[in-house]
Design a protein that fits this description.
It is a single chain. This protein is an alpha+beta fold and about 190 residues long. The chain is built from three helices and nine strands. The chain is globular and about 45 Å long. Bound molecules: ligand K1U and zinc ion. The site of ligand K1U has 17 residues, from strand 2 and helix 2.
């Protein structure tokens, strides 16, 4: 498995539309495994393909110990926007903002066997699904903020972004999980 670099705000890939996956293959499954590994190392609860520089329409999610992949997801039902909560983003580290979103959504997607499934979600899972589906259409949580709040979030990012030359966030591999190449064998 590979830890992938995370692209941060400023990399155009985060603003691009993704391409639907026409066939779920071993390559799709390998990408999903790498994305899970990367998401967990970054202590996230979701990660979308554009965040690792890919244009496939897929994301991984792990909320309340339930991990799953959404391929070509669509929101097929949602409530009115009634839930406000703070969000962050692995692609905009250390910047946060309150985002109002529907409290309940029903999402239709394909799984890693290419089978269609539907999930009805509330609370954090509903928020995470919407945040990840936004990424798949080039949208970021900042786009949901008021003009003033967005301006202040961008001012904070103006300072933070210096830490990410080339708009790349490199994660430190967790030594406890690096079994293939232990130090003493290098
Ligand atoms: O896509 C991403 O950038 C991952 C992001 C997704 C997210 C979902 C819902 C609310 C905010 C952000 C994160 O995983 S942010 C970090 C996180 O682990 C977290 C966020 C909210 C509550 C608990 C944890
Ligand atoms: Zn995000």
């Amino acid at each position: 498995m590979t830890i992938l670099d995370i692209r941060v705000l400023g990399d155009p890939v985060l603003r691009d539309e993704t391409t639907p996956i026409s066939e779920v293959t071993d390559e799709t499954r390998a990408l999903a495994r790498d994305m899970f590994e990367t998401m967990r190392l970054a202590s996230g609860i979701g990660l979308a393909a554009p965040q690792v520089g890919r244009r496939e329409r897929m994301a991984v999610i792990e909320v309340n110990d339930k991990a799953f992949v959404i391929i070509n997801p669509e929101i097929v039902e949602s409530d009115a926007k009634t839930a406000k909560a703070e969000e962050g983003c692995l692609s905009i580290p250390d910047v946060y903002g309150d985002v109002e979103r529907p409290a309940r959504v029903r999402v239709r997607a394909l799984d890693l066997d290419g089978r269609q499934f539907e999930i009805e979600a509330t609370d954090l899972l509903a928020r995470c699904l919407q945040h990840e589906i936004d990424h798949l259409h080039g949208r970021l949580f900042l786009d949901h903020l008021s003009v003033l709040k967005r301006r202040s979030a961008l001012a904070k990012w103006g300072k933070e972004k210096q830490k990410y030359p080339g708009f790349v966030r490199k994660l430190e591999a967790d030594p406890a999980r690096t079994h293939e190449h232990p130090d003493e064998e290098l």
